[in-house]
């Protein structure tokens, strides 16, 4: 092979690598600015939401366990995210990354719980009382945090063994599995609300806004990362190809705490109204039916005597 023939592919390969490197460098620079901008925006918003949640908890006997844990997971993401690519030592960087990843996985779990809670409230109002119990909510929250921690441990073991494809495959599964449940809760609640005549139109809109926000957030923020991880799990050679897309998808995930705070605002407006129309009307009907049966029994006894 002549030198001229061998030099052309090498030069082309170098130019491609340089253009890819420049693109990634530019995205990282944008990532740095957006990360710190969102840090100073999201932190006050989440703290304000937590203070409002504290006031609501003091004035109401119901403790929104899932919302509390969701905001805690948002704080973990907000504080750990700016330092993932800023620390110098590789070990410290991995620790910060896995802390952020734990908060992210937990955030997904609690988003799904809130969505499923709305669905149960609408379709099964009597069963919702047991689902809403403090003991049940705490147990589910512990399971979600345990799952997030288990994901970190298993991923570290796979990395030590050199099975990086398995790590990305696990991440893809954890990110995608809750999505069908979110879709099911949205359309199931939509169908139930369309048939209901006891709930005012404003309350219907608020419930659907919550579920639509969860579905939109999941579709826009988490599905792009899921697709990237699936491609990387097929072959590690795809990592360089999807690196720009993965960085952009990571920027979208940074908006997750803001979406959670917006969902909290909708929760504050709909919780009492929905409980009034769904949870309290059916027990009152059952009580009235019991009183009617007791009255009929007394009338029958009086007629016999």
What is the level-2 CATH architecture name? Up-down Bundle
Broad structural category: mainly alpha
Q: Which percent range describes the beta-strand content?
A: under 5%
The low-confidence runs, each spanning 5 or more residues with pLDDT under 50, are: 1-16, 277-282, 285-302
GO biological process, one term: positive regulation of Rho protein signal transduction
InterPro entries: GPCR_Rhodpsn, GPCR_Rhodpsn_7TM
Protein name: G-protein coupled receptors family 1 profile domain-containing protein
Family: Belongs to the G-protein coupled receptor 1 family.
Key descriptive features of the protein:
Rhopdopsin 7-helix transmembrane proteins; disordered N terminus; mainly alpha
């Amino acid at each position: 092979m002549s030198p001229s023939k061998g030099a052309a592919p090498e030069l082309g390969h170098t130019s491609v690598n340089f253009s890819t490197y420049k693109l990634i460098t530019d995205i990282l620079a944008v990532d740095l600015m957006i990360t710190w901008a969102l840090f100073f925006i999201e932190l006050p918003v989440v703290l304000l939401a937590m203070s409002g949640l504290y006031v609501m908890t003091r004035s109401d006997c119901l403790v929104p366990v899932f919302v509390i844990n969701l905001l805690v997971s948002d704080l973990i993401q907000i504080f750990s995210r700016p330092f993932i690519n800023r620390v110098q030592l590789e070990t410290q960087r991995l620790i910060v990354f896995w802390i952020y990843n734990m908060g992210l996985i937990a955030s997904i779990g609690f988003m799904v719980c809130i969505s499923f809670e709305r669905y149960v409230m609408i379709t099964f109002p009597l069963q919702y009382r047991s689902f809403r119990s403090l003991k049940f909510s705490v147990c589910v929250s512990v399971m979600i945090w345990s799952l997030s921690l288990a994901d970190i441990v298993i991923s570290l073991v796979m990395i030590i063994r050199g099975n990086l494809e398995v790590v990305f495959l696990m991440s893809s599964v954890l990110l995608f599995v809750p999505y069908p449940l979110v879709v099911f809760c949205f359309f199931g609640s939509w169908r139930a609300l369309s048939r209901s005549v006891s709930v005012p139109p404003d309350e219907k809109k608020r419930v659907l806004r919550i579920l639509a926000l969860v579905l939109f957030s999941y579709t826009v923020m988490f599905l792009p990362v899921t697709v990237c991880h699936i491609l990387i799990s097929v072959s590690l050679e795809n990592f360089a190809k999807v690196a720009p897309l993965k960085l952009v998808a990571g920027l979208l995930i940074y908006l997750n705490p803001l979406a959670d705070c917006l969902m909290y605002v909708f929760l504050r407006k709909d919780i009492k109204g929905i409980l009034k129309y769904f949870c309290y009307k059916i027990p009152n009907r059952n009580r009235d039916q019991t009183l009617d049966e007791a009255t009929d029994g007394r009338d029958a006894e009086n007629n016999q005597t």
